[in-house]
């Protein structure tokens, strides 16, 4: 077995170096350090009303099944289509709790939230949606969250005194919608998988979730059309993408957040299903980017940010069981990446300096024009 | 309560052997930090149901801690002493429920950003303990065997990609009688070097006929227990207010007899194995629903806990993926042999890694075989790394 550093910081650094090298060689992109003062390929373009789409490559994916040489076969769309058009950050460190709901909420607030991962509670700190809407006086329909399961339904807005109810994003839970539309009838079970870590847990809904009757009003989609299209899809995340596209077409929010979660099947311990989830998520990210470019409201003025909520345990850590979980808190489970593309983003550049996952919200603030005053992170200068 | 307030009578609810052990070392336990003692008691309280290797390790650990001078003890536990606990944790009944305490401690460490500090303290402690009690080499070199791909007739993608760099890849192994050969070899080892729980056969499906000298666990044999467990899970989740933590706590409190394990009627009167099987089903994810996960996790736990010198693991097809609530329903499942082959291929890599974490790794051997086919990888001192043989090869050659 090859020797591995026992120092987590050193390990993360070596890991990022390795990642930078193999991505550079595979995708033919440049190093960001040489471009910091260069106008090369700066794709700002003529600005219409700026929009931001955030995708959490959710469920936790490791490098060795994604960007490492042996994993690149699982992300052909990202490697060949997206990275050459993107700025890629190799070291995004999550220093918070490695549970999906609390980590996604932390991404959305820019602060490491500490609430119970399995409780249906809102974050304590203002979300990016609240900063955006309140500070810029944007209407409710200008910020949306599409999330895979009930557990994510509270990330749209916090219980913070200065923001809170009424100032956040509207949340749509496609699976919840499908359940309501079908009344539990029909063969939709493959689209209704929920929460692989604790598969039997579906917290009661509360908060600002999308109502079924608005399917027709807002998305201009009949229940019958929704059901028949759902039958052609293969997973909850595909359903999320379908709803996202309808949202983009009919509502065109300026701030759109999509949480993917198919990959979390890894908790069941089946490697083939975990990799299948990665491949699907890779494809869906590519389809989303194509959809963005095809929508007049989004084409040319949209920045898309893709990042996992965190990784998964290393094979070498005896305290875990490799890909199955994210429980050890080791360097590899905390160190992930971010891919940024579109408006205002340099193309084909890799940045290997460490950054925090909490830097996301202030960065979006800089892009859209608000201050994330209570966030622990700071804006990423390479994206400004 | 602080550890300093510990008294031997507080262990009265412990199983008999665990009680004796805890009483004998109450003085030692009382001098250790509160962030550490419950983790140790979580092992002590299970003493009666531990494998011999585990018992010996706990005894040695307690002896070592007792022999520490005050200054050494302060040095060993400096990291743990820095961990701050909540009032609620300090007042928790960690003597009688150390397992539940550790679960809550884990949540507390995450929430208070002390996980890294705790991890560093634990790593440092483990290193010191290992240095004080160097692991003993096994009496014979370990042999691990993984059999993967049951039910797959053709597969054109490369196999063993993770394991090939460690050993020799054979492409012309003769599959005839290979399973019988393996069972005979592991039985011979068990008879030649009898060690309590030292030679295992784990099957992810229906077990083949095997020698009683082996310790056997199979997914099929545990079907009644799995059915009973999933029925209990379904019943519990339908209760109002039942959340994941409550369910986990409930499962952690289960006894083997609650799901029909450990009774004579079940054919398994061994309390150590009954408890082991219970933990496989109640403390792990996926072992209740996926045969491949069951085989991998059982192997992991057997290696980690019993440290066998022989471990034969035969993977079998798991059911196809469906929503979780359907997968725990008691209906005849549709199988996914190809997906299971991929799972098992990776699982065999984990079997190898887990074997190599044990003492004597430099002398250990490991063989993985695509069941019914010609491909295998052999790893060990005898086999050159990263090589390939296309010569016709008898299976027993790989085990020699």
Describe this entry's structure for a reader.
- The complex is a heterodimer of chains A (384) and B (400).
- Chain A is of the alpha/beta class and 384 residues long.
- Chain A has one domain (51-379): Alkaline Phosphatase, subunit A, CATH 3.40.720.
- Chain A has helices at 8-27, 76-82, 100-109, 128-136, 174-182, 214-219, 223-230, 236-250, 271-294, 331-334, 360-368; strands at 30-31, 51-56, 86-93, 143-146, 170-172, 255-259, 302-307, 335-342, 349-356.
- A nine-stranded mixed β-sheet of chain A has the order 1-9-3-8-7-2-6-4-5, sandwiched between helices.
- In chain A, helix 8 (236-250) runs parallel beside helix 9.
- Chain A is globular, with a radius of gyration of 19 Å.
- The relative contact order of chain A is 0.22.
- Mean pLDDT of chain A is 84; it is low at 1-12, 35-47 and 198-205.
- By secondary structure, chain B is α/β, with parallel strands linked by helices.
- Chain B folds into two domains: 3-132, no CATH class; 143-399, no CATH class.
- Chain B has 17 helices and eight strands.
- Chain B has helices spanning 16-24, 26-29, 37-44, 52-67, 70-76, 78-81, 87-90, 98-111, 115-132, 178-192, 223-237, 244-252, 271-282, 291-306, 324-327, 337-356, 395-399; strands at 143-148, 168-170, 199-203, 215-218, 310-314, 365-370, 376-379, 387-389.
- Chain B has an eight-stranded mixed β-sheet, sandwiched between helices.
- In chain B, strand 6 (365-370) and strand 7 (376-379) form a beta hairpin.
- In chain B, helix 3 packs antiparallel against helix 8 and helix 14 runs parallel beside helix 16 (337-356).
- Classes of the chains: A alpha/beta (384), B alpha/beta (400).
């Amino acid at each position: 077995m090859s020797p591995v550093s026992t120092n987590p910081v050193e390990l993360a650094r070596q890991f990022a170096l390795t990642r930078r090298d193999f991505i550079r060689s595979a995708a033919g992109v440049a190093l960001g350090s040489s471009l910091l003062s260069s106008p090369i390929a700066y794709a700002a373009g003529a600005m219409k009303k700026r929009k931001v789409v955030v995708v959490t490559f959710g469920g936790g994916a490791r490098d060795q099944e994604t960007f490492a040489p042996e994993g690149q076969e699982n992300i052909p769309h990202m490697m060949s289509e997206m990275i050459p058009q993107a700025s890629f950050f190799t070291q995004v460190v999550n220093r918070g709790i490695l549970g999906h709901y609390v980590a996604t909420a932390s991404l959305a607030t820019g602060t490491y939230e500490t609430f119970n991962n399995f409780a249906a509670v809102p974050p304590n700190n203002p979300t990016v949606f609240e900063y955006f809407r309140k500070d810029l006086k944007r209407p409710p329909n200008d910020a949306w969250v599409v999330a895979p399961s009930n557990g994510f339904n509270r990330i749209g807005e916090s219980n913070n005194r200065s923001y809170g109810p009424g100032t956040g994003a509207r949340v749509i839970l496609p699976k919840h919608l499908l359940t309501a539309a079908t009344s539990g009838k029909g063969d939709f079970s493959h689209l209704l998988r929920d929460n692989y870590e604790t598969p039997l847990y579906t917290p009661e809904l509360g908060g600002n979730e999308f109502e079924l009757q608005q399917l027709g009003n807002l998305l201009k989609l009949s229940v019958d059309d929704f059901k028949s299209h759902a039958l052609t899809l293969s997973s909850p995340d595909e359903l999320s993408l379908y709803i996202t596209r309808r949202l983009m077409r009919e509502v065109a929010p300026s701030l759109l957040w999509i949480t993917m979660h198919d990959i979390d099947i890894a908790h069941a311990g089946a490697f083939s299903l975990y990799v299948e989830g990665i491949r699907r998520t890779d494809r869906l990210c590519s389809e989303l980017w194509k959809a963005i470019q095809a929508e007049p409201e989004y084409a040319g003025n949209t920045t898309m940010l893709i990042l996992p909520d965190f990784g998964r345990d290393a094979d070498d850590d005896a305290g875990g069981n490799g890909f199955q979980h994210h429980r050890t808190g080791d360097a590899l489970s905390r160190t992930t990446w971010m891919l940024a593309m579109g408006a205002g983003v340099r193309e084909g550049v890799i940045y290997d300096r460490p950054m925090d996952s909490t830097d996301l919200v202030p960065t979006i603030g800089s892009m859209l024009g608000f201050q994330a005053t209570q966030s622990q992170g700071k804006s990423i200068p390479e994206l400004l | 309560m602080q550890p300093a307030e510990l008294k031997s009578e507080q262990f009265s609810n412990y199983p008999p052997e665990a009680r004796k052990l805890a009483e004998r070392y109450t003085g030692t336990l009382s001098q250790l930090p509160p962030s550490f003692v419950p983790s140790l008691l979580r092992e002590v309280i299970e003493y009666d149901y531990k494998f011999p290797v585990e018992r010996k390790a706990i005894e040695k650990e307690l002896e070592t801690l007792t022999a520490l001078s005050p200054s050494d003890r302060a040095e060993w536990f400096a990291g743990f002493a820095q961990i701050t606990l909540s009032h609620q944790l300090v007042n928790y009944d960690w003597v009688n429920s150390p397992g539940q305490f550790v679960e809550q401690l884990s949540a507390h460490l995450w929430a208070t950003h002390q996980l890294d500090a705790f991890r560093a303290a634990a790593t440092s402690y483990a290193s010191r303990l290992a240095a004080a009690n160097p692991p003993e080499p096994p009496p014979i070199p370990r042999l691990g065997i993984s059999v993967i791909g049951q039910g797959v007739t053709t597969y054109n993608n490369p196999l063993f990609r993770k394991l090939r760099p460690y050993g020799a890849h054979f492409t012309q192994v003769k599959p005839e009688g290979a399973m019988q050969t393996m069972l005979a070899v592991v039985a011979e080892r068990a008879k030649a070097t009898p060690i309590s729980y030292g030679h295992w056969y784990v099957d992810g499906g229906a077990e083949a006929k095997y020698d009683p000298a082996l310790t056997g666990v199979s997914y099929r044999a545990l079907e009644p227990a799995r059915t009973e467990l999933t029925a209990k899970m379904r019943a519990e989740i339908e209760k109002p207010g039942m959340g994941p933590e409550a369910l986990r706590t409930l499962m952690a409190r289960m006894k083997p007899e609650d799901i029909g394990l450990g009774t004579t009627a079940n054919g398994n009167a061994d309390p150590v194995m009954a408890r082991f099987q219970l933990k496989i089903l109640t403390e792990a994810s996926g072992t209740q629903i996926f045969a491949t996960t069951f085989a991998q996790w059982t192997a992991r736990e057997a290696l980690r806990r019993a440290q066998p010198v022989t471990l034969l693991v035969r993977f079998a097809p798991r059911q196809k993926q469906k929503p979780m609530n359907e997968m725990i329903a008691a209906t005849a499942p549709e199988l996914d042999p190809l997906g299971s082959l991929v799972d098992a291929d990776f699982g065999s890599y984990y079997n190898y890694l887990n074997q190599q974490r044990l003492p004597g790794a430099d002398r250990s051997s490991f063989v993985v075989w695509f069941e019914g086919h010609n491909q295998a990888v052999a790893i060990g001192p005898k086999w050159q790394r990263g090589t390939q043989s296309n010569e016709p090869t008898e299976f027993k050659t790989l085990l020699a």
